[in-house]
Design brief:
It contains 35 helices and 24 strands. It has 994 residues and is an alpha/beta fold. It is globular, with a radius of gyration of 33 Å.
Length: 994
């Protein structure tokens, strides 16, 4: 244990800090920091909204099995990891979950009792029958306090359960007579007296076990006091932490900045909190003095606070994790900031979980102390609380709810055994005589089967059944394609490489339907990890999957022939920036804001009316004004390396690429796409993004592989590299011969408007003009077909319209600032398919599958597959889990409803004016009213590759072992030689899929 005032311990220094507080040794301080960082892993990182990145909210628990992680997450974070059983039952009634899938899921969950059965007369009742009924309808024990009411006012012996199927309702006699006799027979079979007689309830209540007085595992003292005395200490602490963190983490939204942020969160808080008079209203005595007496080091403060609370060192990690779990949204963002020292805001205003925890524990210590002194005149320490309640055992039992309803054993047995057997008998269509004839061993078997699958374990079985339906359907479709590999390949009109994003799959189908086009799937950053600065923008954005650090910096610049337009643009841009800054300052000023209403009220009323009622006309006028005021400047992205770039905000990154690096990226990308021969006249690299108005989640609909950015800069760089003769010469030496008449072209797919725009056509030679014109026409037609397909799924979208009308509708959705759902995003994603295009070309996968091209025959060493499995596959798992958990518990793991969202600090949203930072996805992006548009299932990865190659890569990478062995993803393999399907088991074995 770290002892703060001990001269003998090695973990103490012999000096005090500037506040006079004793300090830890450097080694002890490092250990405290390491413990805090480890404890914070329970909370997943949260990216800021402007660079939204998908993540698994239980990522810190991926070392556990999926079900174990869900249970631990429930304990620490309070979120549910499965849909409510009633939701699964609704899906069953609608036919989404099949009866066969339910039976198979039960067999997999309970293989040890699957073959058991009893005989009732000549009828065989199997354990599978009982477990199936238990899953579909639920036979739970009755709360003893409800027994009397259920047998009288509740009508349990007069009417069938409402969910009892009609065909199971006994027609041979009156309902009330049948149920009354069935209940009496059930009691008789269990040797229980009829509870209708008061005299039979005189048995002494069963003595309840004396509860141990101790702090519950995974809980803080403030939690415990909430349970024992209804104290709202956690809410008070959260209120203070939200106030301070929201102010500190602001990235330009606030008119007045929190002062002193440059020194870090903990020092800035100490400086300001000492002057915060509101702190006195918390009931903390000598508030200012206590803050000024705090140690300078947050690690020292943490050790002091845990010592003052009396928490043993063995419980420190558990206690710290609970503190972080109280506000997982804010802590997740703080953790993300702390792990990115080069993030501009972090460099200017540093914060990390250690500083956060030091501040939080101050409020924990002082509020607990104040409450305990006020309520019980004891110290707010664990030992004092334990001693107090050990001497007040009776009151303690009442407060923890142990003796509120003392129940005799007979009543307990009736509520547990008789009640369940009574209802099970109805669904099994047993007569009263059947029940009375049951032997004790038969009754024990029936109840034992129910016990084997308690209600809180139904979720994993339901999930397995839901997943198996889609898994079997998908594999059945893929099986029809296995023998269709093309023997010859004619030269296509164009080859288009799209992001693996599931939303690209429908567009690929529609463009291929327009003519001899060939599409490929590749990660949307096209294998080029860059930090990108757009023209006339002073910020740099990483454009690569979030597990990858950008390796290069690039700038978008005007083309050399753009001097005239550039001068006009610069003038307009300066006036625009001046107006924006002036407006922001006036709006934030208490006096200026009043003048602003009178001066610009009429102007904004026109804007309000235009954006609300005349959306398209307003956008047209605004676009015209923008072109007139600041005309478009044709730009390019230089790709050659620049040795000295003094204005670069990221001097640690090389600016541009060497010729060898350019050839490396092109070769790697072409091989990953399986595009190494038979090149078309046009090869289009199609990045993507999304357009929406008034949508804080705009980045969430952009390229998930690019950290919420648009993928077109990467596509432009890839095309520029691929068109260089020097690069093609190197490729030719490496066995990839690109014809002289092949032109690489960059494009951008807008996922809301369904339009693909070809970029940098100024550099296209005249020889390709006709090909580009034809491709542009076919892209427009494909977009119309795609828009029509999307309209059939989108709520409140027209269904029976032409492609042109569908095009017009989806465009209007992108402009509508009141539309909470401009698109469905990646809702309904289910599978990640890695293989040759012919495997999926003729299938309609309904936008549910990520598609990555891969040729196992050309990757004998497995390097391409390794890159796919350790980057795109991991990212798709994060996407899948983000959608999964946001769907099963939209208020704990998701962002809840957009209706109450309030943008805070420029980094995220809160509910109303004061809440945790909402992580995850909003309800409107997952549900259509009460209907789950995204049915939460785990991702299934289907790799067209040899099983031995896949196993070797899993064995090599811990991250793959965790997500496959712990069943965060289901893994299937298609043998490239035989076309046979194999399923990967958690024990690292493969079995043929039947």
């Amino acid at each position: 244990m770290v002892v703060i005032q001990s001269a003998n311990t090695e973990r103490m220094a012999s000096e005090a800090d500037s506040s006079g507080s004793p300090v830890l040794s450097s080694e002890a301080r490092a250990r405290v920091r390491d413990e805090v960082v480890e404890a914070c892993n329970i909370v997943a990182q949260s990216w800021p909204m402007k660079i939204f990145a998908y993540r698994n909210p239980l990522r810190g628990l991926e070392h556990l099995t999926f079900d174990e992680a869900i249970r631990k997450g429930k304990h620490l974070l309070g979120g549910n990891g499965y849909l409510p059983n009633d939701d699964y039952r609704h899906l069953y009634r609608e036919g989404v979950i099949t009866d066969d899938a339910v039976r198979q899921a039960i067999r997999r969950a309970k293989p040890d009792i699957d073959s058991q059965a009893i005989m009732v007369g000549t009828r065989r009742i199997s354990s599978l029958d009982v477990l199936r009924l238990h899953l579909l309808f639920g036979f739970d024990a009755l709360a003893p306090a409800l027994l009397s009411w259920q047998l009288s006012g509740g009508g349990s012996t007069r009417e069938f359960r409402h969910d009892l199927p009609d065909e199971s309702r006994n027609p041979r006699e009156g309902v009330e007579s049948y149920l009354t006799q069935l209940w009496e027979s059930t009691l008789s079979a269990l040797n229980l007296a009829d509870t209708s007689h008061e005299s039979q309830q005189d048995e002494e209540p069963e003595e309840s076990e004396q509860p141990t007085v101790e702090l519950p595992a995974g809980r803080a003292i403030s939690d415990w006091l909430g349970l024992l005395a209804g104290a709202s200490l956690v809410d008070q602490i959260n209120d203070q932490m939200i106030k301070w963190t929201a102010a500190f983490l602001d990235e330009g939204l606030a008119g007045w900045e929190m002062p002193g942020r440059h020194s870090g969160f903990y020092p800035a808080w100490r400086e300001l909190a000492a002057r915060d008079y509101s702190g006195r209203f918390l009931g903390i005595e000598h508030f200012t003095r206590k803050i000024r007496d705090l140690p300078d080091s947050p690690e020292d403060a943490i050790a002091q606070f845990l010592e003052r609370l009396g928490i043993s060192e063995q419980r420190w990690p558990d206690y710290q994790a609970r503190q972080f779990a109280q506000l997982p949204g804010w802590v997740g963002f703080i953790r993300w900031r702390g792990e990115r020292p080069h993030y501009p805001a972090q460099k200017e205003h540093p914060i990390d979980p250690v500083q956060y925890l030091a501040v939080r524990l101050f409020y924990e210590v002082e509020l607990v102390q104040s409450f305990c002194r006020r309520e019980w005149q004891i110290d707010g320490t664990l030992s004092a609380l334990t001693s107090h309640w050990e001497t007040h055992q009776d009151e303690y039992q009442k407060r923890v709810g142990r003796t509120c309803h003392a129940v005799d054993r007979r009543t307990q047995t009736i509520c547990r055994d008789a009640w369940r057997l009574f209802h099970l008998a109805q669904f099994l269509e047993l007569t009263p005589s059947d029940v009375e004839a049951l032997s004790p061993s038969d009754i024990q078997s029936l109840l034992g089967w129910l016990d084997a699958l308690p209600t809180d374990e139904h979720g994993p079985v339901w999930l397995d059944a839901l997943e198996s339906k889609y898994r079997e359907q998908l594999i059945g479709e893929l099986s029809t394609q296995v023998g269709k590999a093309p023997t010859t390949r004619a030269r296509p009109r164009a080859q288009l490489s799209f992001c693996i994003d599931a939303r690209s799959e429908p567009f690929r189908r529609h463009i291929e339907a327009q003519g001899p086009y060939e599409t490929h799937g590749y990660a949307g950053f096209f294998g080029i990890p860059i930090r990108y600065q757009a023209f006339d923008d002073d910020t740099r954005q990483p454009l690569c999957p979030v597990p990858i650090f950008p390796g290069f910096a690039v700038n978008e610049v005007p083309r050399s022939a753009e001097d005239g337009p550039l001068q006009t643009y610069a003038t307009g841009s300066r006036w625009n920036q001046l107006g924006r800054h002036l407006f922001h300052d006036l709006k934030s000023n208490p006096i200026g804001s009043l003048m602003l209403i009178d001066a610009l009220g009429l102007f904004f009323s026109f804007r309000l009316v235009g954006k609300t009622f005349f959306t398209k006309s307003y956008e047209s006028v605004k676009s015209w004004a923008r072109k007139w005021f600041a005309p478009k400047v044709v730009t390019e992205i230089p790709i050659d390396v620049v040795e000295d770039h003094h204005d670069d905000a990221t001097p640690v990154l090389p600016h541009g690429f060497t010729l060898e690096e350019q050839a490396f990226f092109i070769e790697k990308g072409l091989r990953a796409m399986g595009l190494t021969e038979n090149f078309a006249p046009l090869v289009v690299l199609c990045g993507h993004g999304s357009t929406a108005d008034n949508n804080p989640y705009a980045a969430a609909y952009n390229c998930g592989a690019c950290g919420g950015g648009h993928g077109d800069p990467n596509a432009r760089i890839f095309a520029a590299m691929g068109n260089r003769p020097e690069v093609r010469s190197i490729l030719d030496e490496h066995g990839i011969s690109v014809p002289d008449d092949t032109l690489f072209v960059a494009g951008k797919h807008d996922m809301v408007t369904d339009r693909v725009t070809l970029l940098d056509l100024e550099q296209a030679p005249e020889s390709h003009a006709e090909d580009i014109q034809l491709l542009t026409r076919d892209l427009e037609r494909a977009g119309g077909s795609q828009a029509l397909e999307r309209c059939r799924r989108l709520p409140q979208a027209p269904k029976n319209v032409s492609p042109e009308q569908a095009f017009d509708h989806v465009r209007s959705r992108s402009m509508d600032w009141a539309n909470v759902r401009p698109e469905w995003g990646l809702s309904s994603n289910f599978a990640f398919i890695v293989g040759k295009r012919w495997l999926t070309r003729d299938l309609n996968l309904e936008g549910r599958s990520f598609l990555h091209c891969y040729d196992a025959d050309a990757d004998s060493e497995g390097k391409v597959l390794e890159g796919i499995m350790t980057a795109p596959l991991v990212v798709t798992q994060w996407i899948s889990m983000e959608y999964y958990f946001s769907a099963v518990d939209p208020w704990s793991y998701g962002a809840g409803s957009k209706v109450t969202h309030n943008v805070v600090s420029g980094v995220g949203v809160m509910h109303g004016a004061h809440s945790d930072l909402a992580a995850g996805l909003p309800l409107q992006g997952l549900n259509d009213g009460s209907k789950h548009y995204h049915e939460p299932v785990r991702l299934i990865a289907i790799l067209q590759a040899p099983t031995a190659r896949i196993s070797a890569l899993i064995q090599k990478h811990t991250v793959l072992q965790q997500i496959f062995h712990n069943q965060w993803i289901h893994l299937m393999a298609i043998d490239p030689a035989t076309g046979e399907f194999h399923r990967y088991n958690p024990d690292a074995t493969w079995v043929p899929y039947r």
